[in-house]
Amino acid sequence: MMMNKQPVVFCDFDGTITDNDNIVEIMKHFLPEGYEEVMRATVERQISIKEGVGRMFALFPSSRREEIKSFALEQAVIREGFQEYLQHLQDHRIPFYVTSGGIDFFVKPLLEPFHIPEEQIYCNSADFSQSQITITWPHPCEGSCTNQCGMCKVTVMNQFPSDQYYRILIGDSITDFEGAKIADLVYSRSTLTKRCEELGVQHVPFQTFHDIIEDMKQKTLQGV
């Protein structure tokens, strides 16, 4: 039974905590030459997420770090209800982890106002020591996942065994597909909703974090 297990939440960042996908917005704003082809191949799953993200950021010289960071911080909008959702989870002792395919130099500053412990934020990193931006992958696929996710949500989720934890995934895009397959409950938006329908994965569509709070209350996901 569900309530014999501890609920735990794994939440995507780009397009989930934020209204827009920050990587997509960065590419569309700065228009590095050749990004369209790489993005299309990534979205259509012709290349892995790891390869796609790495190749897109490698189109930028490292000297543009602050320019890209400033743009990301200025344009990002936090989805309605996020602060209230974090408080709801804290009130009911439900652990919360950010599992992001985004990059640390903009993910962590955007999350700073919410005081999420750094060890609960999983994302990719960027190295600016070379001429071009190099994305590094501190949380790669291990064990059962061989999809070259870059930041592997399956690997993070597998640290919380399914016989002990009721695993809740919140997401919107291709970076969430593999995690959705092993989650007990999926809150979905956008591309992830369509993919869950195709895969026959149980999911609850949402627009704001208030929607998720209300659904969790109805499911009595209040922790133990």
From TrEMBL:
Q: PANTHER family annotated for this entry? A: PHOSPHORIC MONOESTER HYDROLASE (PTHR28181:SF2), UPF0655 PROTEIN YCR015C (PTHR28181)
Its job: Dephosphorylates 2-hydroxy-3-keto-5-methylthiopentenyl-1-phosphate (HK-MTPenyl-1-P) yielding 1,2-dihydroxy-3-keto-5-methylthiopentene (DHK-MTPene).
Q: What class of enzyme is it?
A: hydrolase
**Record's keyword terms, sorted:** Amino-acid biosynthesis, Hydrolase, Methionine biosynthesis
Asked whether the keyword Amino-acid biosynthesis is assigned, the reply is yes
User: Which pathway is it part of?
Assistant: Amino-acid biosynthesis; L-methionine biosynthesis via salvage pathway; L-methionine from S-methyl-5-thio-alpha-D-ribose 1-phosphate: step 4/6
Q: Which GO terms describe its molecular function?
A: 2-hydroxy-3-keto-5-methylthiopentenyl-1-phosphate phosphatase activity
**How is this protein named in the record?**
2-hydroxy-3-keto-5-methylthiopentenyl-1-phosphate phosphatase
Which InterPro entries does this UniProt record tie to the protein? Answer: HAD-like_hydrolase_phosphatase, HAD-like_sf, HAD-SF_hydro_IB_MtnX, HAD_hydro_PyrdxlP_Pase-like, HAD_sf
Which family does the entry's similarity section mention?
Answer: Belongs to the HAD-like hydrolase superfamily. MtnX family.
Q: Which organism was this protein described from?
A: Paenibacillus algicola
Pfam families assigned to the protein according to its UniProt record, in alphabetical order: HAD
Q: List the EC numbers from the record.
A: 3.1.3.87
